[in-house]
Amino acid sequence: MTAEAARRQRAAADGRFSVWVAASAGTGKTKVLTDRVLNLLLHGNAPGRILCLTFTKAAAAEMAIRINAHLAEWATISEAALIEDVEELTGAMPDEVLLQHARRLFARVLETPGGMKILTIHAFCQSLLRRFPIEAGIAPHFEVMDERSAAELLAEAREAVLAAARDEAGTVLADALGEMTRYVPEEGFAELLGTLTLERSRFAQVGLDGARFPVFLERLHAALGVPRGATVETIINAASSEEAFDAPGLHEAASVLLASRAPTDRERGACIKAWLDAPAKRAAMIADYASAFITGKGTVTTRLITKSEAAAAPQVAAVLLAEARRVESVLAARNACALLHASAAMARIADALLGAYAEKKALHAALDYDDLILKTRDLLGRSGVAAWVLFKLDGGLDHILVDEAQDTNPEQWEVVAALAEEFFSGRGARAGHRTIFAVGDAKQSIYSFQRADPRAFMRMREHFAARVAAAADPPVDIRWRTVDLDISFRSTATVLRAVDAVFARPEASAGVAFDGTPIRHAEQRRGHAGRVELWPPVTPDAEEDSPAWQPPVVQQRVRRPEARLAEAMAAQIHHWLDTGERLEARGRRLRAGDVMVLVRRRGSFVPTLIRALKQRDIPVAGADRMRLAEQLVVEDLVALGHFLLLPEDDLTLASVLKGPLFGIDEETLFTLAHGRGERRLWAELRRRATEDLALHRAAAELQSLLARVDFAAPYELFADILAARGGRRAILARLGPDSSDPLDEFLALALAYERTHTPSLEGFLHWLQTGDTEIKRDLDQG
Fold first, then answer.
1. DSSP states of 345-382 as a string?
2. Angle at Cα 232 formed by Cα 231 and Cα 237, nearest 5°?
3. CA-to-CA distance for 176 and 80, rounded, in angstroms?
4. Rounded alpha-carbon distances, angstroms, from residue 100 to 50, 72, 88
5. Rounded Cα gap, residues 722 and 706, in angstroms
6. Is 687's pLDDT higher than 50?
7. Which of 195-209, 412-426, 460-474, 601-615 has the lowest mean pLDDT?
8. 439, 403 in Cβ contact below 8 A?
9. DSSP state letters, 33-86
């Protein structure tokens, strides 16, 4: 490690200062977090008074493992090694007392009740609410819903709101629903309502309930500049009356345009004349009339009349320009009014939806993930309660560390700010050494769909810097640092220069460099080889044109661009492995596990690439996201379940027999199915079971399962199929070890279903296939 990199990491890990760290990818962020906790422990801070908030469970586990491993090593290593390690961490030579303290830290952490607080922010909020449910105003026995259960409960609330609007015609809710359906298609309605639930905190701040809704409406009118009582119809009608425009001037302009030799002038003149000659229909014709003056982008047409005609009749050009500007303002007023009424309708629906959703959650004593944050924020924001709650947290907190701070949303920041508020005010500021630490990088923010705002990362930096400065005693003793970690331990100079070159362009950096600071990276691995290859864009295979008279009976194999790219990448990786490409950084040959493929999005390219790699016998870990219902092994189990519910389904039975559970070959299946007349395939299988050993086994197994299906819960049924009946062994033999993960997740999902639903096979299969369950997998953390 270079001296500069070590200096920056040591400055960030110094527990005497509150520190705000901007850490680029691969700059040792996790090491800094670990070192800071070790530094705090070395200097006598109680493990129970340190809170580490991470973004994922995997990150929390990784950090806990590193800290415990380091402390365990301190307890056993030699004196010289311990001195060297502590000196590297603190930057000072340790004395005997500090060394003895370091050796005892592992035991001290193990003896801390509940262990160290290294948690995701949701887990921390859940533990806090478990301890103070009465103060938070929730049921003490509350349960936390997973995303699937929350979506089901939200769907129930949505149906209740829609039913209420349908059954109570003429009510405010029914009118609001009617207004929304003018703009939102059927397939987008559920998505919109789901988005509204994510914004419940903002809706609560605005105030949409019956008492405060008029205030919200007044503010909406003021913001959009729409007068009270205005509607789209009144605005268009007023704009279409004779008093609203220069009628004589427009009649003259229409005559001049119609007499022009230019087709565009004549078309515009005809449009204006048609509108002028139909006073009763002007409001309905406003869209066609506006097209004579306004472009599709909403701006005034550049040339309203040709130059020659404008020179001959300059007063006509002036009339047309004035009318164009008037029409532009009318359309703006119409759009603002439409937006106001649509927003008011959406707010009404949101209020009803969130109210119904809250009632259903209260009925089930359930909270979703957002509730954990919001309830904790409200708890810590209550006057007279927050200080007592924090005191009961093992006597309080002295140090807060926030990981992946760029992906923390505003409500989560409010929780962190409430936890740290006592640090910098009143007695809390004088009670001892207390710090706030955050590490993140706005460039790496990928969770905007969870309303994380990278700009909030910088706003909170200024907030805490000001709070620390105000609490400094004396004022010149400001214990605050900002540290930039931009020295990469992961990439070589060639890669980093390529990245910097890309983001040197303003259009590329606009979305990641929010404060305008140029993006620069430095390398730790100086002198190491590196290479960036730019491959040309991939196009589809050329299609051969067949003669017009040739019937389309010959199949042409045309590879899509993603298939061609996947094959090219697989060929390159195969070449590396086959030729013994050297991995100089490790001093050995390249292995398949050394190659990582990053994709912009998880689309159809991922399975295409995995297939191409497997075709070349290249070991591949698979995708890090898995849609369970789309896995072949799950489709086989679902097909078996459908057969057990409806044995008369011949096609499903055929797919089950041919699948890995029974392995009936094509010839045997054809012999069984062909020529059976009107008999069902299941009846034919039982009739001819004695003719073939495989058919006999399949008929006996299926008959046994049919006898159990009405009495066994889904998990019990499928666990029996996979374990006692040898299903897992048969599936792995046919589809390979990659099938093990989907099988385990399938059984886990069956258990999850039984915890919240009446256990039935039909209900479980429907729940599985309609839920679009996605499994997130941590592939290789090494």
1. HHHHHHHHHHHHHHHHHHHHTEE-HHHHHHHHHHHHHS
2. 100
3. 75
4. 21, 13, 17
5. 16
6. yes
7. 195-209
8. yes
9. HHHHHHHHHHTT--GGGEEEEESSHHHHHHHHHHHHHHHHHHHHS-HHHHHHHH
pLDDT in tens, 234-259: 999 999 998 888 899 999 999 999 98
Counting Cα atoms < 13 Å in the Cβ hemisphere of 462 gives: 5
Per DSSP, the residues of 681-734 read HHHHHHHTGGG-HHHHHHHHHHHHHHHHTTTS-HHHHHHHHHTTT-HHHHHHHH
Give the β-pairing of 588-589 and 582-583: antiparallel
CA 307/CA 317 separation, integer angstroms: 9
Angle (CA) 216-218-224 rounded to 5° is: 100
Instruction: Tell me the pLDDT tens digit for each residue of 118-174.
Output: 999 999 999 999 999 998 999 999 999 988 888 888 888 988 988 888 887 778 888
What is the C-alpha to C-alpha distance for residues 488 and 27, in angstroms, rounded to an integer? 4
Distance, in Å, from the CA atom of 438 to the CA atom of 652, rounded to the nearest integer, reads 55
pLDDT, position 208: 65
CA dist 646 and 659 (Å) reads 18
Predicted structure pTM score: 0.79
Q: Which pair of structure tokens corresponds to residue 500? A: 């910097």
> Which of 238, 270, 264, 254 shows the shortest CA–CA distance to 319?
254
Of 204, 460, 497, give the one whose Cα is nearest residue 351: 204
Length of the chain counted residue by residue? 782
167: tokens are: 């059954």
Whether the Cβ atoms of residue 549 and residue 561 lie closer than 8 Å to each other: no
Contact in structure between 121 and 343 (CB atoms under 8 Å): no
Task: Give the pLDDT band of residue 430 (cuts 50, 70, 90).
Answer: very low
Summarised one tens digit per residue, pLDDT across range 208-238 is 666 778 888 888 899 999 998 899 999 999 9
Measured distance CA(734)–CA(664) in Å, rounded? 12
CA distance 606 to 731: 23
Q: Which two tokens stand for residue 679?
A: 């008999």
SS (H, E, C) 114-130: CCCEEEEHHHHHHHHHH
Mean pLDDT over each residue of the chain, to the nearest integer: 86
Q: How far is CA 724 from the centre of its chain?
A: 39
Give the Cα separation of 412 and 122 in Å (integer).
9
What would the two tokens of residue 714 be?
Answer: 């889904």
Task: Dig out the tokens for 535 from the structure.
Answer: 């491959």
Query: Can you tell me the distance from the alpha carbon of 592 to that of 587, in angstroms, rounded to the nearest whole number?
Result: 15
* Collapsed DSSP state (helix, strand, coil) of residue 523: strand
d(CA 575, CA 570): 9
CA distance 36 to 25: 19
Place of tokens 């679902």: 638
Residue 327 has pLDDT above 50, yes or no: yes
Residue with the bigger pLDDT between 151 and 773: it is: 151
User: In which element (H, E) is residue 224 found?
Assistant: helix 213-224
Question: Per-residue pLDDT for 107 more than 90?
Answer: yes
Asked if 97 contacts 31 with a C-beta cutoff of 8 angstroms, the reply is no
> What are the tokens at 69?
């491993």
Owner of token pair 């789309």: 630
Q: How far apart are alpha carbons 574 and 705 in whole angstroms?
A: 45
The identity of residue 160, as a single letter, is A
The three-class DSSP label of residue 649 is: coil
- Highest mean pLDDT among 175-189, 458-472, 564-578, 584-598 belongs to 564-578
Q: For residue 283, give both structure tokens.
A: 């409001």
Q: Which residues are 31's β-sheet partners?
A: none
Q: 504: which residues sit within 8 A by CB, 6+ positions away?
A: 518, 519
Give the residue from 255, 419, 431, 231 showing the smallest Cα distance to 335: 231
Q: What is the pLDDT of residue 546?
A: 66
Instruction: Give residue 8's Cα distance to chain centre.
Output: 32
